[in-house]
Amino acid sequence: MKKKNELPAVRESITGNVARVSATTIVAWAGVAVFGIYALLGRFIGGESILFPALILASTAIPISIIWLVGRGGQIEARQRKILELERRVEELEERVANAEAVEAFEERLAKKEAEQLKG
Description:
The protein is mostly helical. The chain has helices spanning about 5-45, 50-70, 75-120.
């Protein structure tokens, strides 16, 4: 049985993924643009041009890594909330089982007393 509060968690996850994919796409296209400019104008830059591919790679890889690592925080919080909710539910069920066992033990004692009264 699905609960009403599961839908916002799914929606939050989907919007988070869309935002991360969009940001990654923007950073990747920016890297492609910089690499294209380097490819066209690299011969005019001079001796330091050997460093540009590494700088372009770092300038795209670092933001993409940050986008996906920082963006994952919301998912972790949602999972932690879900775990806490499940733990609370388990405690509630354990309490209900303990109550049911107590009622069952009481009924057994009551049945024994009635059986003894009928014999006696």
